[in-house]
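--- STAGE predict ---
source: upstream dedup step, 1 unique chain passed
mode: sequence only
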Amino acid sequence: MGGICKRLLPACVVMDSHEKDKESLIGLLVDTLDRVHAIGNKQQLLDDVLEREHFTSTCLGFGCAVPHTHTTALESTLIAAARLDPPLEADTPDGEPISLMFLMVGPVNSAGLHIRLLSKLARLLHESGFRQQLRQAKTSEEFHRLVCEKDE
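--- STAGE serialize ---
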């Protein structure tokens, strides 16, 4: 599919974030997307992601979360990622704190693509070896390369 790698740029990977709660971390990832992609309505995007997150948690377990939403603030699907150090205590299905978060956001009319990318990302994050590699990556470029290798 190759879709995750195209939408996650190395500049959109935040390494060793110290955010204290999910909302702050999501805000950091939205800010990162805005810095790299010059989003026209950053506040709308943040509001849409937080509304979706309050509706139901996007924590997958295994220390991973994938907040995601459709929004009128974007014309294409974008992804940002963060590795947390220390991991973030949150309400997760398995009680494991979040150490990896991927934020996926896209336009309202891209539901099919959104579901395919979300499904692929969830499958990748269920692989313990892959999660371990991401947690050990030294740079955002290495993190990005690891994602791209798995996304082939």
